[in-house]
Write a structure and sequence with these properties.
The chain has helices spanning 11-33, 35-52, 64-83, 88-103, 110-114, 117-132, 158-165, 169-172, 177-185, 223-230; strands at 137-141, 150-154, 188-191, 201-207. By secondary structure, the protein is α+β, with helices and mostly antiparallel strands. The longest helix has 23 residues, at 11-33.
């Protein structure tokens, strides 16, 4: 069951986590736009994040909690950037740099585990759990006739639904940008047969495969980032 209000008694912890995130934004924004602008974004985003906390949905399903909380942080920063004359695209480009740094710490061997039978067992259990929570997801193991090792099909993506509830559809169209960065570091090629839309997402993964970047992300990824993700 999806809960709202769950994080109210965890507000202090969430604020501390957000301060760490916003400091990292501050470093990049200061370099790009100057220290005064960066500080204004940090101040405004913390106000927006505080306002978001009561309505952040809670899913009792492992990493899905973190995915929602991360997107709550991004929403707050997008709103601060927009208030100060920047766009959602400007914000996501900064996030690309942060994720590239974070995910670069993932050992490439993790991808082999992720696409193995053992990894599949846990992914399947996670898909069942999150489906019970209303985030309807199927885990599909590829066979010799498929061009993927693992496919995860989501029919009611909790991220999309959350972004819609906060009127963030203009960000929702880019919400898959981080997946291509993460799976690249895991030595997994990622493709999406369809763009995330109406809560429907399809991710096809192949160990040591080649990622195919959707055209929808061209505005987010620089040429250098695209080359990095596809080679």
């Amino acid at each position: 069951m999806i809960e709202k209000g769950y994080y109210l008694n965890k507000k202090e912890k969430l604020i501390k986590q957000f301060k760490k995130t916003s400091q990292r934004y501050n470093d990049i924004l200061s370099e790009q736009y100057g220290a005064q602008f960066a500080q204004q974004i940090i101040d405004d985003s913390r106000t927006y994040f505080d306002e978001l906390i009561p309505n952040i949905p809670f899913y009792d399903a492992a990493s899905y909690q973190g995915i929602i909380l991360l997107n709550a942080q991004v929403i707050a920063i997008i709103r601060a950037m927009e208030k100060n004359g920047k766009t959602v695209e400007d914000t996501v480009r900064v996030q690309v740099e942060l994720f590239k740094e974070d995910y670069g710490k993932i050992p490439s061997c993790v991808g082999r585990v992720f696409t193995s039978k053992v990894g599949g067992f846990f992914l399947n259990r996670l898909a069942q759990q999150v489906t019970k929570e209303g985030w309807y997801t199927d885990y599909i193991k590829g066979d010799t006739n498929d061009d993927f090792d693992v496919s995860i099909v989501t029919k009611n993506c909790g991220v999309i639904r959350y972004l819609e509830s906060e009127n963030m559809q203009h960000y929702a169209k880019y919400c898959n940008f981080s997946d291509f960065i993460m799976f690249r570091e895991m030595n997994i090629g990622l493709t999406q047969p369809m763009e995330p839309k109406n809560g429907n997402c399809v991710f096809c993964m192949k160990y040591k495969g080649k990622s195919k970047i959707p055209n929808s992300l061209d505005i987010i990824y620089t040429k250098e980032i695209k080359e990095y993700l596809t080679h």
